[in-house]
Amino acid sequence: MSTVTVRRAVAADCTVLARLLSDMQAHYKSPDPPGGAQEMARLLTREGERLPFALLGEHQSAVVGFAILSPMLYGGAYQWMLFLKDLYVTEQARGLGVGRALLVAMARIAIDEDYCRIDWTTEGTNTGAQRLYDGLGVPRQDKRFYRLGGETLRKFAGG
Questions:
Q1: Which long-range contacts (CB under 8 A, 24 or more apart) does 9-12 make?
Q2: CA–CA distances in Å: residue 125 to residues 4, 78, 147
Q3: Which fold is adopted by the domain 4-157?
Q4: For residue 1, pLDDT beyond 60
Q5: How big is the CA angle at 151 (ends 148 and 153), to the nearest 5 degrees?
Q6: Is the pLDDT higher at 126 or at 1?
Q7: Dihedrals φ, ψ of 144, to 5°?
Q8: How many CB atoms neighbour CB 62 within 10 A?
Q9: Residues 134-150: what's their mean pLDDT?
């Protein structure tokens, strides 16, 4: 089995990252507006302190997965934390250890860059992701997830 490597995405990776973002949207049957993936890739490869960023997972010299992370201030500890928004591995590369390698790289970044923790969610129906996280021994949290969006957001904003 070949080694999986992980690195932070840079501006030169915009095209490959945009392709993988579009692949993820197709996989989840989500909208992929024209130019949206390219713009997201551009935003994720900017340089600067505590900006959202992407990690790329490579296997046999091909980029086959990514993780998107956003730094957030965590008021409970008065520290920075990371929020993992998306972790995606191409169908052909699943089972090769890419997801695990991305998670380990995230943990190393959290330690090296002084983040206090990493949080994320997964859809209740995403059993593949849950198997990965459970198999790695990542503890589940007993929290509820709330979301305001679309028409509900508009109604709520109206008072």
A1: 9/41, 9/44, 9/45, 9/53, 9/54, 9/55, 9/56, 9/66, 10/45, 11/42, 11/45, 11/46
A2: 27, 33, 17
A3: Aminopeptidase (3.40.630)
A4: no
A5: 30
A6: 126
A7: -100, 150
A8: 11
A9: 90
